Amino acid sequence: MSRYLDPADSSKPYKDPTPLPSDIPKVKELGVTSAPLKSAAFFLGAYCKDYNEDFMLCKSESADPAHCLKEGRRVTRCAQDLIAKLRENCLSEFNDHWGCLEKNNQEYYHCRKDERVLNKCVFEKLGLSKTIPGAPAGKTPIHEVKNPVYTGVQK
Amino acid sequence: MPPAGGFEAVKYKRNLPFRGPSGLVILGGVTAVCAYGFYRVGKGNLEKRELQREKVWSRIHLVPLLLAEGDRDAYRRQQAALAREREIMKDVPGWEAGKSVYNKPNHRSAETIVVI
């Protein structure tokens, strides 16, 4: 007989070594930490829009994890594609920006200098631009404001 | 006897020489400083709203990616748990492994997990 062990109190981590069933196609997980993801978030939103929306529509049909595996793999592959392209074309700019985010509590407004360089590079090389949905029309978007009130040490 | 030429006139008039800027100037200055401060606060509030919007959208853009990864892991654990259940309950006739105790077909995430 087994005894109930509260996973929250367990001294062992909650790991299950069983691999995915073999009939599910394999996809390499992205394995990117939070700062690079945050740095690439808006490009990811622009580049993988169709796949992301498809996946979220699928998830709204059913919350079952088995239901949207195919769409999920597409999302992950697209994200991998984008990160690879970013690293290929704008490696130093990307590294500078996410390094800055890492050092500044992952707040965008501390890292506008590096962000502008990255945005410019990505726009030139990949044709992706950062747009914030729902921002008031006819005003400078917050990431392009010249003299913002909220700044870090770096402008 | 009074001194020659009479007594000196008694000094009774107020003698407050003008010092510093007038009250009106100070008041005006304070008002100007406050007005500029409030202008900055207002601008800052508008900016804060946009910064929040930016932060929220950066997270929204990442939701599908993280959810997809989590789903794959959840599915893997689900299948492993099902296989375990099938193995444990194989001698019980009429046992359906993975059958929900609820009649609603909606997906519910597992209430319990097994720590191996």
Automatic annotation (TrEMBL), chain A:
PROSITE patterns listed in its UniProt record: CHCH
Single GO biological process annotation from the record: mitochondrial electron transport, NADH to ubiquinone
Annotated region (Disordered), positions in chain: 1-22
Gene Ontology CC terms, in alphabetical order: mitochondrial inner membrane
Cellular localisation: Mitochondrion inner membrane
Keyword Repeat attributed: yes
Cited InterPro entries: NDUFA8
Swiss-Prot/TrEMBL keywords: Disulfide bond, Electron transport, Membrane, Mitochondrion, Mitochondrion inner membrane, Repeat, Respiratory chain, Transport, Ubiquinone
PANTHER family on file: NADH DEHYDROGENASE [UBIQUINONE] 1 ALPHA SUBCOMPLEX SUBUNIT 8, NADH-UBIQUINONE OXIDOREDUCTASE
Protein family according to the UniProt entry: Belongs to the complex I NDUFA8 subunit family.
Stated role: Accessory subunit of the mitochondrial membrane respiratory chain NADH dehydrogenase (Complex I), that is believed not to be involved in catalysis. Complex I functions in the transfer of electrons from NADH to the respiratory chain. The immediate electron acceptor for the enzyme is believed to be ubiquinone.
Protein name per Swiss-Prot or TrEMBL: NADH-ubiquinone oxidoreductase
Automatic annotation (TrEMBL), chain B:
Lineage top rank: taxon: Eukaryota
Transmembrane segments: 20-39
Main localization (coarse): mitochondrion
Protein location: Mitochondrion inner membrane
Record's bilayer topology term: Single-pass membrane protein
Pfam family, one: GRIM-19
The entry's keywords: Electron transport, Membrane, Mitochondrion, Mitochondrion inner membrane, Respiratory chain, Transmembrane, Transmembrane helix, Transport, Ubiquinone
GO cellular component, one term: respiratory chain complex I
InterPro entries, alphabetized: GRIM-19 (IPR009346)
Positions in coiled-coil regions: none
PANTHER family for the chain: NADH DEHYDROGENASE [UBIQUINONE] 1 ALPHA SUBCOMPLEX SUBUNIT 13, NADH DEHYDROGENASE UBIQUINONE 1 ALPHA SUBCOMPLEX SUBUNIT 13
Function: Complex I functions in the transfer of electrons from NADH to the respiratory chain. Accessory subunit of the mitochondrial membrane respiratory chain NADH dehydrogenase (Complex I), that is believed not to be involved in catalysis.
Family recorded in the similarity comment: Belongs to the complex I NDUFA13 subunit family.
Designated name of the protein: NADH dehydrogenase [ubiquinone] 1 alpha subcomplex subunit 13
